[in-house]
Design a protein that fits this description.
Blueprint lengths: L4 H4 L12 H12 L6 E5 L6 H13 L12 H4 L7 H7 L6 E5 L6 H12 L9 E6 L6 H12 L5 E7 L7 H4 L3 E4 L5 H14 L3 E2 L1 H11 L3 H12 L5 E2 L1 H4 L8 H13 L2 H13 L4 H19 L3 H5 L4 H13 L2 H17 L8 H16 L8 E3 L2 E3 L20 H12 L12 E2 L5 E2 L2 H18 L3 H5 L3 E6 L2 E6 L2 H7 L2 H15 L4 E6 L3 H4 L3 H8 L6
Parallel strand pairs: 1-4, 1-5, 2-3, 3-4, 6-7, 13-14
Antiparallel strand pairs: 8-9, 10-11, 12-13
């Protein structure tokens, strides 16, 4: 059976470890000066070299090599294992009895710790100089197991070294942390990841296109082991040269080029072309959440370029992509970048419950394009909600609609009203009168609102391209004071309608159409079957009965 790439190319010396210079240089010098601590704690994301460094440290402290390097230093003097002596070979091959690796996820109990660690640590090494315990996923130990381990770590034998590795350092007790030298491992930078993958590809005599390696590094998210596993899947295709077309058979399909095209459409103000591009995504079977993630990654790069972080973007993208992103950044102001980022963050969140899958993205595109043409309202308050930057205060979307005030009706009033409503009026129809409330403010009837609502929709189409999406299922429900309650069928539409920018535009339109200052409040409207109540339902609700 073939050996997996991540095992075949596991680093065997400190210098072969990708990144983590702050860890490997310190350990090299400690070994060279014979000042090795009795306990170490390696913490950090998976696949960043914690276990590999623990094994290299075990070899370095037990190395028996005498050969001198180019500087005339022996392995013990330069801190690196020679990988030629018997001690190094047995540890590399996993045959060393004095290097004990324990998976704490499988040995969580106190009895396991006592038998495997505490009792074994009392005995001197059988073949090597030091006995090394490597405990992986140490945060999985039980409280009793921690207490048993604490005693041996407080007063360890001189020949024992503990190396604890964990991905969740916050679960390690403080009493253990205080007895260890702690090293935090970092995710691998994309540029270093690509260099590592190029080295492996050269060793395997396979030519891999640089964009493919960059895609592998991006999907690995800083984990070397994941990157090497993806590269091995590419090698399994049996091709001596792996192009982007060949890689698409194995790698998750990326939508980064399409996302970049979309940003260029928004930057150029070509909203129609951007909408057509989004429509083509579903036809091509592209995953919309993944597309949104790619789009936000590109927007992050634009944000970095705008704020002097070009070096970070150059190392993670090719020259052509960087040039296009830089052009987009030059054409956008900082407030517009923040607005567009916030818009697409909300669109990605809205994808989860959207009735029409691409609708949140379409609305975001229209808003981003509209903002570029109309400018940004600077007088609206800026807030930060949770971890998402919100350019405008959207507290109004969470404000519940005020219930309509109702006055109890007497039985005679209900009966008279029902009888009057059942008769046909013999008089000619008259124009609806404008009622007055207690404050002498004009209150429009529902008939008044509905009569001119088509004109509101027409004006919305002319003045703002995003409002027609929101108002496609809308209708005026009622009026309270100077506020018109506009009913829509979908919660997403209601949220967008209540955003300050949308409300400001719509309130201006309705104020012009109805010739009075008015406000707007979006609400969820009932389905037709829920609001077409029969006479019996009305009587049951109001507690009346039909007379005559």
């Amino acid at each position: 059976m073939a050996l997996a790439l991540y095992r075949k190319y596991r680093p065997q010396t400190f210098r072969e470890i990708t990144n983590q210079n702050h860890v490997k240089i310190t350990l090299e010098r400690e070994v060279a000066q014979e000042k090795v601590a009795h306990a170490y704690l390696f913490s950090g994301p998976r696949g960043t070299g914690k276990t590999s460094l623990a094994r290299i440290l075990a070899k370095a402290v037990n190395c028996q090599g005498l050969a001198l390097d180019a500087k005339g230093l022996s392995p013990r003097q330069n801190g690196e294992p020679c990988n030629k002596c018997e001690a190094c070979n047995t540890i590399t091959e996993g045959r060393a009895l004095d290097v004990i690796e324990i998976d704490a996820a499988s040995y969580t109990g106190v009895d396991n710790v006592r038998e495997t660690i505490v009792e074994t640590a009392k005995f001197a090494p059988s073949r090597l100089k030091c006995k090394v315990f490597i405990i992986d996923e140490v945060h999985m130990l039980s409280n009793a197991a921690w207490n048993a381990l604490l005693k041996i770590m407080e007063e360890p034998p001189a020949h024992v070294i503990f190396v604890l590795a964990t991905t969740e350092v916050h679960k390690v007790p403080a009493t253990i942390l205080s007895r260890c030298q702690r090293f935090d491992f970092h995710r691998i930078r994309p540029s270093d990841m690509v260099a590592r993958l190029k080295f492996i590809a050269a060793q395997e005599k396979v030519k891999v296109a640089t964009p493919v390696l960059q895609s592998v590094a991006r999907f690995a998210e800083g984990c070397v082991r994941d990157a090497e596993s993806l590269l091995e899947q590419l090698f399994s295709l049996g091709e001596k040269e792996i192009t982007e077309d060949v890689a698409s058979l194995v790698l998750p399909r990326t939508s980064m080029p399409l996302a970049l095209d979309l940003l260029e459409c928004i930057s150029a103000g070509e909203v129609r072309r951007a909408l057509l591009l989004i429509g083509s995504l579903t036809d091509q079977g592209i995953d919309l959440p993944q597309f949104s993630s790619d789009l936000l990654e590109l927007l992050r790069n634009v944000l970095l370029i705008k704020n002097g972080g070009k070096d970070m973007v150059v190392s993670a993208t090719d020259a052509s992509t960087f040039e296009r992103l830089e052009k987009i950044s030059d054409g956008w102001t900082m407030p517009r970048i923040l607005f567009i980022v916030d818009t697409f963050v909300k669109a990605k969140q809205g994808l989860k419950g959207a009735t029409i899958p691409q609708l949140p993205l379409e609305i975001a595109v229209v808003e981003a394009g509209e903002e570029g043409r109309a400018g940004q309202p600077e007088d609206l308050p800026r807030t930060r909600v949770g971890a998402t930057f919100t350019l405008y205060d959207d507290s109004s979307r969470r404000a519940p609609a005020r219930p309509a005030s109702t006055t109890p009706l007497k039985e005679t009033q209900i009966s008279a009203g029902l009888r009057e409503g059942s008769r046909q009026s013999s008089q000619p129809p008259v124009a609806p009168k404008v009622k007055r409330n207690e404050n002498n403010n004009a209150v429009l009837s529902l008939q008044d609102l509905q009569a001119k609502w088509p004109e509101v929709l027409k004006r919305a189409q002319e003045e703002n391209h995003s409002l027609p999406f929101l108002l496609s299922t809308s209708e005026p429900m009622r009026m309270e004071g100077d506020t018109i309650h506009v009913g829509v069928q979908y919660p997403f539409h209601c949220d967008k309608l209540n955003e300050p920018k949308s409300r400001a535009v719509l309130e201006k339109i309705v104020s012009d159409v109805y010739a009075m200052p008015l406000r707007i409040q979006g609400v969820i409207s009932a389905r037709p079957s829920e609001k077409d109540n029969s006479v019996e339902d009305v009587l049951k609700t109001l507690g009346g009965r039909l007379v005559g």
